[in-house]
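Quick one:
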Amino acid sequence: MGLDDGCEVLSLPGVDGGVLETGRVESPWVRLNQSALEICRILRQPTSIDELRRTLSDRRPSATERDVRSAMSSVIDFLEARELIRLRSEPAAPSTALAVRLGCRVALPSGDSMATRVVRAANGSESHPALLFRPGSREAVEDPSRRDTDDVRLPDALAAELQQDVEQELVQASTELSVGFDAVTRVQVLRYRQGQFYGWHRDRPSDDRVDKLSSRLLSYVQMMSGRNDFTDGDLELQAEIEQGVVVRWRVPLDAGSSIVFPPHLLHRVRAVTSGVRVTAVAWAKAESGELTAPVS
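Output:
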């Protein structure tokens, strides 16, 4: 399938070009991506995902498939930014077929006032910078270059009510998606003001590494703000739906609507350019335990 066929493509996530170019991290993965950046500098005409895959595989025959996909991401980001590759947008409307293919569940607003109450409380509550776990790390850290958002503390009664609602929705989602779980983490309420964002990341490692994130089974995001309350700030998911076909889905969420998705999917929150974006996030886990920071 090419870029003109079937599911439309918006973009692909890249990796930190600064790290790759300075070579601060030495590993086969980084060297492969350095080769990807070299290819970017050479290419001066439109190309295809399959062509990039073949070129990268030829340059590093011993690279794993996952490494090739990572290198492809950096190449295509580079090409897209310089308008050397033509990528099309996924329509800004719920796509049942795409959601199913990615293993997601999108729920429309239930019509209650929870979203409005949470937004009102979040705007007047204490907050602190949201943290994240780096791969293999045992402690959450603050890193505004990767995640710049506020973790808001709701009044206890409202927080407990929201927790119960989220747990009930995750039970329903797990049934529909055929994914069982044992516990739900504390629900985080996150506030994004102008300029705040969260870069590309996974909530669970994509490899076989066992750490504090590996027990996550489902990721949950519920939009609390209305679409007229902020500009940009969209949630985007990225996945390779088949060899050579990688989609980026800009998820259309309005106040009260939610999405449940596999935690290994790459995703991000685009920078808010105006207004305030408030969401609730949580994770269903295979074992009990408190863990609220995503993996970087």
